[in-house]
TrEMBL record:
PANTHER family reported in the protein's UniProt record: PROTEIN CBG26694, RIBONUCLEASE H
Name of the protein: Retrotransposon gag domain-containing protein
Top-level taxon: Eukaryota
InterPro entries registered for this protein in UniProt: Retrovirus_Pol_polyprotein
Organism, as annotated: Arctia plantaginis (Wood tiger moth)
Amino acid sequence: MSLSPPLMAHEADAVMPPNFIEFYDSKSKFKRWVQRLEGAFNLYKIKPHKKNSYFLHYIGSELYDTLCDLVSPSQPETRTYEENIASLTNYIDPVPLEIAEYFAFHHRGQQEGETIKEYMAVLRRMAAGCNFGSFLETALRNQLVCGLTSQKIKDRLLETRNLNLQTAFDIAIGMEVSQVESCKTREVNIVQMNMKRRQPVTHNLQAKNSSVHSAPPKPCYRCGGDHSASKCTWINASCNYCHRIGHIKKMCLKLKNSQKVNLVDVEESEQDVVQFV
């Protein structure tokens, strides 16, 4: 059984490596995608003369059309890998104006809900286009202090001697953590106080409801018993006083009103006798 000859170097190089790199997405930063592409070239040991072919393939059809328009009447395939990279970089990520970048950096303050770590990361990214050089650490320190939203942290940093960037960052982070914990503690205390204030009210309501439920029922207006009038056995009884149906004599309202009138007449008669004497 004959063995197949080994692949030649140029044949092995033509095989597409698995999971090489994803196609370029316009949502990604072009420069950083190119950096990852270079890493893939090194990882899979892609030869220099093959880089342009890989690049033109993985930039995708949309960006390839853009490149063709940029280099017309030349063709991207006839140009070098470095030339095509430069053309697209200048188109997608043009070099910003240094003064404009510095202006944006100088006016960038900490935003609402932004942590100090997040704010510092933004400042470092913005400083990349300002060409600070050896002044970078000082510029970052100054903008960090000036842009903080917490006046308490800012005052602490402003009164610290020989303040460098790392010290300012460490102090600010420590105070930020302390403020967050203090705020959480206050919120817990407020919730507990509100719960304690509501407890007496709940107790009073329960006591009130209990007293309502424990109140004795009204007597039956038909017979005076401790049951509902609708369940009274005298519901069809005839009153011996007013002769109406539905109650007995001792619960007759007409009788009670008559007794009240007689009582008033007796009292008035007694008063007349006293006055006459």
